[in-house]
Structures are given as C-alpha cells and as structure tokens.
Amino acid sequence: MRIDVLTLFPEALEPVLASSIVGRAVESGIASIACTNFREFARDKHRTVDDRPFGGGPGMVLMCEPVFDALEHVEAGHEGQASTRVLLTPQGERLTQRVAQELSQEAWLVLLCGHYEGFDERIRTGIDAREISIGDYVLSGGESAALVLIDAIVRLLPGALGGESSAHDDSFTDGLLEYPQYTRPREFRGMAVPDVLLSGDHGSIEAWRREQRIERTLARRPDLMQDRRDEGRK
Ligand code: ADE
Q1: Which SS3 state, helix, strand or coil, does residue 18 take?
Q2: Domain span at 223
Q3: pLDDT at 169
Q4: Would you state the pLDDT for residue 124?
Q5: Of 123, 154, 185, which one is at a domain's C-terminal end?
Q6: How far apart are CA 92 and CA 153, in angstroms?
Q7: How remote is the CA of residue 217 from the centroid of ligand 1, in Å?
Q8: Is the whole-model pTM more than 0.90?
Q9: pLDDT of 58-77, one tens digit each?
Q10: Residue 40 has what pLDDT?
Q11: Do 91 and 176 lie in a common domain?
C-alpha cells in the first residue's frame, strides 16, 4: 500500500511513521509512506498557506491553492493509478475498525491534514475525499488523526504484525472487546493468573476467553453488543 500525507508539519509525523509496527511495515516494503508539505506549494515569497476568514471571525483558514497544488503534484507523480483521498476533519464519518478495514483494501491513500481554525470549504467540496474523524473532540490539526488512521490501517496489512492471527483477535474485529492476557510470573503481589490458562486444556482456554470477551463487552461497551445484535451476529 502507498500512503501520501499532505500536511503543514511533516516533521511531526515522520519520526512516528518510522517507529514500531508502521516503521517496520515501511522497512519491509509492505507500506510506503511519504509526507508532502503544503507550504512548498505556497505562491508568495512569504510562503503563505492561510489567511483570515471572509466575513470575519477568529483564527486563520487554510487556503485552497497550496492544498490543491500539493494534491495535484503528488497525484501527477503516479499517473494512471487511482488514489483514495481522505480528509481528516472532526466533521467526518467516525473512524471505526470497519472503516480501517475498508481503507486497508485500497492500494493508494492520500491523506489531507487540515490545520489552524479549519480549511476553506472549497477544499472539502472540490476534492471528493472521504471525510474521517477519529472521535468527537477537536484537535489542533489533522496530523495526530492521520497517525491514528495510518496505525489502524497498516497493522491490518498482510505481514505487518508478526503473527498473522494477531490482528484477527483484536478488540472490535468481530465487534467484541479482547479477552484479558497474562504472562509470567504466575503470581504477582497476590494476584494470580486464572487457573484455566495454566491448564494446557486448549478447549477450556478458548471457551474461557470467549466468555471473558462477552462479559467485558457487556460490562464496558453494551452499545457494541447492540450493534452485533443489529447485524444479526450470534
Ligand atoms: N482535526 C481536528 N480534529 C479532528 C478529529 N477529531 N478527527 C480528525 N481530524 C481532526
């Protein structure tokens, strides 16, 4: 998968994208990720990318020209391939595991990070992007949202996680939270590992884990149980 990120702050993204699972996926060629700075496409000698809003009001608004020019530049480098454009905005569709799964099927994503008070509405209407929010809160820019989205997508790409089954067992993959995990020691400060996990009985372990997943989901996220019912799952 190829991912281009258009942003005013590539230097904030690059070290994170070079670390951990995403960094390893890039190193092993599973994903290739490039950041492009809108500011390189500013049209004046001050490299202006934002301006005051028409009609007045606080803050600055990201301008159309540098955003459209940056997007067209990035896409012209790969003529003939179709990109899926994603605009990070608190007004977008909420990111869920299902959205991450859908986007992980794409060959090429172009992510656009808004900044400051917002962006010119013609960026939204003129770009034909899928608009995504990572949650009902306002960040000071789309950069941290892009990092969240990239992490959620890249770990789903075949080979990105060590064991192929790791992503399959994740919370949300089938609408349930994950079961609790334990490692050594068997007892820590009076807290013991559940006997069943030490029993070597894989059938019982499997059954216990499933029970735990259902119990936890009911206790912490009853809304997810309702979603499963609505989808007709058992
Ligand atoms: N930009 C600012 N807030 C955001 C959010 N919650 N999700 C995505 N992009 C954003």
Answers
A1: coil
A2: 171-233
A3: 65
A4: 95
A5: 154
A6: 17
A7: 27
A8: yes
A9: 999 999 999 999 999 999 98
A10: 97
A11: no
